[in-house]
Amino acid sequence: MKKTIVLFSALVLLLAFQRCTQEDDITPPEKTNVTFGFSSSDAINGRMKTDISESTMLVISIENSLGESVLSHHPLTLLSFGNGYVTTPIELIPGNYVITDFMLVDSSDVLFATPLRSSPLADLVKHPLPYAFQVDKNKINNVQMQVVAVDEYDPEDFGYASFHVDIVKPLPVAVFALANNPRFINATVYLLKDADTVDVYVLGAHMNILGFKHDPEETYTLAIEKGGYVRFTKTFVYNELITELNGHPLNVFLEPALTIKQSVSRTEYSGYNSFYLDVSSHANFVIDWGDGTSDSISVEPDDFNILSHGYRSGTYYSTITGDLEKLTGYTSIWNSTQKLKFTFDNVPNLKIANLFQDGYTEILDLRKNKKIEHLVFGGKTLLLPEESNLKIVVIYGEYLVPSLDNIIDQVYWNAVHRNIMNGQFIFHDGPTSEDPMATPSDASILKLNELRDEYHWQIHPEF
CB–CB of 139/34 below 8 Å? Predict the structure, then answer.
């Protein structure tokens, strides 16, 4: 049989569209629709015309300029278009990309492929793989590609060990914050098979296409997490879900919450989380402990109602929902779980965050809590709002040593610009120690001395 070379034209259609309001009011780069098309007249002896059926797909892999995978063995449906074919569109941000796989596939059988650059067949095509192309905003881009029929050759002739193609099935997902005006938010998706995590996806604040590469007839669970929101789960069979969606994305709306992600890794005893809540007026809350149990509670101002829960070894995502606008304080009496992550983003009136714990806290991000006044924290990373009412700050632990000067600067700036008097700044090397966490820089010592002498703050230890 004669060698068959088919010329492909990639037609990049740039369509401007308006996005919904994105997370944090930051508009991401605008994406454009990209389609790949070719004409059947490019085939020798008309063979392409007979080989392409309704089940034939273009399977493509694309990387961005950083070498990160954008699409991996992604199938694109072929639609008849005049004397040729055009694929269903994909969305790409304008920029530079590299095609790393380009094949025509029917079921799992590869019919045509573009050879790799170092392969024996590389000289047959003008642009062997990987091949770079560019997507420009407000411009039609044409990418010329060629493929070779595979039936005369071995996979090694194309530069592949085999032509087994694990076709990724698309699953469109969009995640929104539940509010009067829902907005896109980013999130992390865990794909579970029974109790095992088989895939993890990071979603942007827009409509995302997940690559589902598992058995479409088996049962899986989709778990979506975003700090500050209730965890979403959905058990599904891929083929049934796609039929149910009927061409639409899976739209997920997450309820705001105070969230705590925590782990217990020591099996000889359970981890405990004990805390109480401060409120501005009578408030109702639901606490989902993350292990299948939950409690409904009512809280009054000045209550000292300690809530406590024990955990076995494992990772837990617990949430507090309800009258979050009335929640003014969270005080941890004891927490022996590990790798904690607190998210108070959706607690708008938070004034007190007292996080006494034996466990290790990965990060505390308070940048959205501009009413914070009282903070106790020991962990790795502390992010403070640019402006706040911080008056009492107690930090401890070796992990905060690299950021000590920055924390002092932020506390000092707020006190001076807001004229905050009679505050406290304490930095010890442990929750029960009175030894210094570290020696601040000379500039930081001057700022602490000014807080002490001019604003009557209590500073401990003093230098």
Answer: no
Domains, the chain, in order of start with CATH, read 5-158 (2.60.40), 169-254 (2.60.40.1120), 262-460 (no CATH)
pLDDT in tens, 244-282: 998 888 999 999 999 999 888 765 556 788 899 999 999
Cα–Cα distance measured from residue 90 to residue 172, given in angstroms and rounded to the nearest whole number: 11
H or E segment to which residue 63 belongs: strand 56-64
Contact 299, 305 (CB under 8 A): yes
- Percentage of residues of the chain with pLDDT beyond 70: 87
- Strand duo 374-383 + 392-396: pairing: parallel
Question: Which of 38-47, 262-271, 401-410 has the highest mean predicted lDDT (pLDDT)?
Answer: 401-410
Strand bridging mode 458-460 / 424-428: parallel
Task: Please give the pLDDT value at position 431.
Answer: 80
The C-alpha torsion from 350 through 355 and 360 to 363, rounded to 10°, is 20
Residue 197 forms beta bridges with which residues? 192
CA gap 313, 315 in Å, rounded: 7
